[in-house]
Design brief:
Belongs to the adenylate kinase family. This protein is mainly alpha-helical. It contains five helices and two strands, in the order αααααββ. It has a single domain, classed as P-loop containing nucleotide triphosphate hydrolases (Rossmann fold). The longest helix has 17 residues. The protein is globular, with a radius of gyration of 14 Å.
Length: 93
Amino acid sequence: LSSGDLLRAEVKSGSPRGNELNKIMEQGQLVPLEVVLDLVKEAMLEAVKKGTKGFLIDGYPREVKQGEQFESESWVKSHKRLKYKGDAFFSLN
């Protein structure tokens, strides 16, 4: 999953969230981390419904704090046990 691709797809969808993201991105600002986390979460949960068993996530997290927030989410804990190291998460299962 690419966070950039997810952001661009949301903008392209024309949804209210996509329109807000477009404004932020056109101004050269960073998209709030919570929004990126929501997009990643939605994509992961949708993929799990379709039978996906693992993920490689590109572009998120960008810093350790984001990784810790991601790892602390209950929906992540219920699907995989993850380890953050440097610039990547590793599955420990």
